[in-house]
């Protein structure tokens, strides 16, 4: 599925060569990679149409007939649970002319194309095609194009690639590392959707950037993260752009005090236990002692993206008498820290688009950013 080389990638590879140097000698990625529409097209074809992508939670479509439509890099597809309880993913295109057969989310018995009334079942199989009795085309086993699909710890992953890396191989580096990400024992409390005027990669980098936390977030959670006395960042760099680390950090609240019950699998551990991890290309996972979050960053254009934040808690947390009030306060706290980050990444985007921007040197605290971007450059400039 590799795109034709419509832009001078050799020149770009040479301009980005300094990213691959040893960290004390490395510089950040050139601005073109955050501002070019041509590179955004390459990213779609070489990243988002190639690899496994997490697109939601199975609990978002819990009942037979439940469906939701999704869009990634201008490609629309459907997640639907059929009568047998199986989740299917298929392109939202009628096989006749390509019209989208459904929009939004809801519950249905079938999907009817609004253009010529071709009817499909919940697995995307063609049921009837009105007034096609004279065609010589074989329509008996016709169906909307299916996407590869796997469910992992309650999360739905799909791939547009008909022959992607096996999902077991894709997720293997995280099976042990993510001992704390037990989302199969959790429920969604809320999903926040926030548009940000920056390239998606700037937000992905920001979510692993520990360098800015005590500066930008000093008024929210920055003071609740304990600094390493040696001023080091002990991040584990995982295969194919993944990363993980543990730190001491208080829960997400205005006071740093725990608002919700402690996660059951942390029993006996400190309340300032905190873990973070990232799964290529666009996921950031985080834990405080009383909550879990998954952050997804999706490109809209070269200079705009949308952030999806899933807020998750174990089932017993929902039984708190004051859970709803605590959740609203918690969402407000998350909104504040996202707003702090957004102000910076929007400024970064302006810099990326300027002819005067030159990539600056990397800090020893930016090893994970370098790791992510080396994987990114390997794929996009291959």
Largest sheet: number of strands, sense, barrel closure: 7 strands, antiparallel
N-to-C CA distance? 12 Å
Run of helices and strands: HHHEEEEEEEEEEHEHHEEEEEEHH
- Structural class based on helices, strands and sheet pairing: alpha+beta
- Residues in helix, %: 10-25%
Q: What oligomeric state is this?
A: single chain
| Count of distinct structural domains | 2
Per CATH, which architecture of the largest domain? Alpha-Beta Complex
Instruction: Please report the number of helical segments.
Output: 8
CATH structural class of the largest domain: Alpha Beta
Q: At the fourth CATH level, what is the homologous superfamily of the largest domain? A: Naphthalene 1,2-dioxygenase Alpha Subunit, Chain A, domain 1
Number of strands: 17
The overall pLDDT, averaged over residues, is: 92
Beta-strand fraction estimate: 25-35%
- What is the CA-atom radius of gyration, in angstroms? 22 Å
How are the strands ordered across the major sheet?
11-17-16-15-14-13-12
Which fold name corresponds to the CATH topology of the largest domain?
Naphthalene 1,2-dioxygenase Alpha Subunit, Chain A, domain 1
Low-confidence stretches: 1-6
* Form type: globular
Commentary on this structure:
β6 and β7 (119-120) form a beta hairpin. By secondary structure, the chain is α+β, with helices and mostly antiparallel strands. The two termini are 12 Å apart. The strands form four sheets. It has a seven-stranded antiparallel beta sheet. A four-stranded antiparallel beta sheet has the order 4-3-2-5, with no helix packed on it. It has helices at residues 9-15, 32-35, 37-48, 167-177, 200-206, 213-216, 323-352, 367-380, and strands spanning 53-57, 66-72, 75-81, 87-91, 105-107, 111-112, 119-120, 126-128, 148-152, 155-159, 186-196, 236-237, 243-248, 273-279, 283-288, 291-301, 304-314. The chain has two domains: 9-49 and 173-380, Naphthalene 1,2-dioxygenase Alpha Subunit, Chain A, domain 1 (Alpha-Beta Complex); 53-164, Rieske [2Fe-2S] iron-sulphur domain (Rieske Iron-sulfur Protein, 3-layer Sandwich). 23% of the residues lie in helices and 26% in strands.
């Amino acid at each position: 599925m590799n795109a034709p080389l419509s832009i001078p990638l050799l020149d770009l590879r040479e301009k980005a060569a300094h990213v691959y140097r040893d960290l004390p000698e490395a510089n950040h990625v050139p601005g073109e990679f955050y501002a070019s529409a041509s590179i955004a097209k390459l990213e779609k074809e070489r990243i988002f149409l190639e690899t496994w992508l997490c697109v939601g939670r199975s609990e978002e479509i819990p009942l037979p007939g439940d469906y939701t439509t999704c869009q990634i890099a201008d490609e629309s597809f459907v997640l639907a649970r059929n009568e047998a309880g199986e989740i299917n993913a298929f392109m939202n295109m009628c096989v006749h002319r390509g019209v989208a057969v459904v929009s939004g989310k809801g519950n249905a018995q079938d999907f009817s194309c609004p253009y010529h009334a071709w009817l499909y079942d919940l697995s995307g199989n063609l049921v009837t095609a009105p007034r096609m009795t004279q065609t010589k085309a074989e329509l008996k086993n016709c169906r909307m194009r299916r996407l590869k699909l796997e469910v992992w710890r309650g999360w739905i992953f799909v791939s547009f690639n008909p022959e992607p890396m096996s999902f077991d191989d894709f997720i293997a580096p995280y099976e042990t590392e993510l001992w704390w990400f037990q989302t199969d024992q959790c429920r969604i409390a809320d999903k926040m959707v926030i548009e940000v005027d920056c390239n998606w990669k700037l937000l992905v980098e920001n979510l692993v950037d520990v360098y800015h936390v005590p500066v930008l977030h000093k008024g929210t959670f920055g003071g609740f993260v304990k600094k390493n006395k040696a001023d080091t960042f002990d991040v584990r760099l995982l295969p194919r752009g993944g990363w993980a680390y543990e730190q001491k950090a208080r829960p997400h609240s205005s006071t740093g005090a725990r608002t919700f019950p402690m996660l059951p699998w942390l029993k006996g551990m400190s309340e300032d236990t905190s873990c973070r991890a990232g799964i290529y290309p666009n996921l950031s996972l985080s834990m405080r002692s009383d909550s879990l979050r998954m952050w997804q960053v999706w490109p809209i254009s070269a200079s705009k993206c949308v952030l999806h934040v899933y807020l998750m808690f174990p089932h017993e947390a929902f039984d708190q008498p004051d859970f709803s009030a605590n959740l609203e306060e918690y969402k407000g706290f998350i909104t504040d820290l996202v707003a702090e980050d957004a102000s910076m990444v929007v400024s970064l985007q302006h810099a990326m688009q300027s002819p005067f921007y030159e990539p600056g040197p990397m800090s020893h605290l930016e090893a994970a950013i370098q790791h992510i971007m080396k994987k990114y450059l390997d794929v996009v400039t291959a």
